[in-house]
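Researcher: Next entry in the queue.
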Amino acid sequence: MVTITNGKPPVLVIVQLTGGNDFMNTLIPYTSGLYHDVRPVVGVSEDRVLPINDELAFHPCAAPLKEMFDDGDVAIIQGIGYENSNRSHFRAMDIMHTAEPNSIATEGWLAQALREIDPDTKNVLTGISFGRGLPRAMAAPGVSVTSVGDLDSYGLLTGVEIEEHRARELDIFKRMYTPAIGSGPVMSYLHQTGGDVMTGADLLKTVPANYRSTVEYADNPIAKSLRDVARVHTSGLGTRIFYTQHAGYDHHAIEVPNHERLLTELSGALRDFMADLREHDAAEEVMIYVFTEFGRRIADNGSGTDHGSGGGAFIVGERVVGGLYSDYPSLDPADWANGEDLAHTIDFRSIYATLLEQWMSVDSSEIVRGKYEQINPFAA
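Model: Structure for this entry, 380 residues:
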């Protein structure tokens, strides 16, 4: 458990990289001859990378992330995954959202944490999701989460429009998850959530007008979402878990320009978000977790990369002990998963347990369904 010196409660910000980020081209084994051999199209040449040691380097478009790593604010979780990794986007993301790889679960891991943090829903803004569609990670019966597309436009909506917005979000949720978990759990969730939506909307309407910052965020979805997180967090409304999404990482084709654009957007947004928090003396209590549903195949397919395993994640924040955690998956073909994937070297539930227990002071055993060895990425 980490003690925050300014006395504020810990806050967790989730950044979901939707589609399966190519970790091997994010943290690149640039001195490996095999890497360059199997990736003649999408591989990044050694003269372009941003080395962190004699073996690994950041993609050149992730320069802001590399600078934050050099400053000690980024923990890189290498080889994150689970046994028998699922290559279906929907099922793999569902597993990440519920922390249950072996069966279909009905409650999100963050929703369960919210229930522990605010069991009586005294604050309707304890959990906020920015973006279209409520993520399964934030959904559970009896847990109220506010879903906001865009903070500026949300604050201008009338009461009727906010109800319509909520109805659309819940309809998306119902259509996505009824086939997976059945209509009973879905309808139970829909009936029990959202009752305080108008109260949350009224509180959020005051946020944009009260926000001042010298930080200029870029004009892209993840930058806008993290700016919204900063605005709400610095307004002191008591939100403990924020959820954001950055889409477009499913690069089966034309990976090079698209992945470069996304890494530019992501790393720049994280840098600006941290700068904004620091300007408001609000950084110490915030921790960011950046994850994706799976990694990509080791070899490229002539234009991009296909679904794989052995991905990576990042923990970003002032209280992070920066560095490399777990082991980079072996590039020896004898060790490849499925004969073509990076094998995972640490279970994703170990990281959930670490974030829940050490940062949020929430017992993780029921949420991740067991005890998992934790890492130690936080300064005491």
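Model: The mean pLDDT is 90.
Researcher: Noted, moving on.
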